[in-house]
Amino acid sequence: MTLNSYIKSNITRLAPVYDTSESRWLIRIILEKLKGWSQTDIMIKGDQDVSAELQFSIDAIIARLLRNEPIQYILGETYWHGLTLKVTPAVLIPRVETSELVDIIVNENKSKDLAVLDMCTGSGCIAIALARTLPFPTVTGVDISEDALHIAGENAALCKVKIHFLKSDVLKPINLPEKSYDIIVSNPPYIALSEMSVMDANVLDYEPHSALFVPDDNPLEFYRAISSSSLRLAKPGGKMYLEINPLFSGQLRDMLKSDGWEDVTIIKDMHGKDRFISAHTAL
């Protein structure tokens, strides 16, 4: 079977789960991962026969995709914010919205040698992106999961940045020096359990629930703890940036103001949803 025919047959196989454009993208990145082929290479090789070995490898991946397993977990990596990062089911797959959060922080902070703290670091994506784009920062990442911290450490090494990773539960006081951080950022669990019914199977069946969900009766649980710790850990005038659930943006804004944060600002994402909050401590 030629490569073109094989690609068409797999687009048909994937049709129950993915539309045509997404299927083409999936097959392209599978071929790039397995063979190192670019889009041009795929076009050039279109009339060549596909080896049985390659068909076997791709068929195995297609079978996993049809079970809604994310391609990032299947391949063991994702491309995000210009970085190739290792991902496993121990960590969330970084989203484009989180890339927006990094851009907001970088655009608003031009000083050198800033001290940055990333709470709920997961794969380390935010910490690593900030370490690479801010001018000479010192970056610390905190997470409760040893498996996540292992992945984060591997990613920092792959991206050639120095980050101090610390195991700690952000719901409890974190053992870090007070009044030490210029920037504190977090993308904590923020999806209410009641929202599970409208979520895709590839998220519910494979991504870590501990990094996604919060109780319906306490949706600001992580933000309340992060706010308290950040007020203690931030320098005077230190900034805090949070990725948030649009459903609770107003409640969270009011809570942060009540906690004593200044200039609490809700920021919309590219889709027009309340997705981020920024604030700073008093000078």
Shape: elongated
- Which stretches of 5+ consecutive residues score pLDDT under 50? none
The H-and-E topology, N to C, reads as HHHHHEEHEHEHEEEHEHEHEE
What composes the largest sheet? 7 strands, mixed
Strand-residue proportion? 15-25%
Using only C-alpha atoms, the radius of gyration works out to: 21 Å
Q: Quaternary arrangement of the chains shown?
A: single chain
Distance between the amino and carboxyl termini: 69 Å
In total, the number of strands is: 11
Overall pLDDT score: 97
Can you name the CATH architecture of the largest domain?
Answer: 3-Layer(aba) Sandwich
Supply the number of structural domains: 2
Q: Which percent bin holds the helix content? A: 40-55%
**Contiguous helical run count:** 11
CATH class of the largest domain: Alpha Beta
Structural class: alpha/beta
Widest beta sheet: strand line-up: 5-4-3-6-9-11-10
CATH H-level superfamily of the largest domain: Vaccinia Virus protein VP39
Output the CATH topology of the largest domain: Rossmann fold
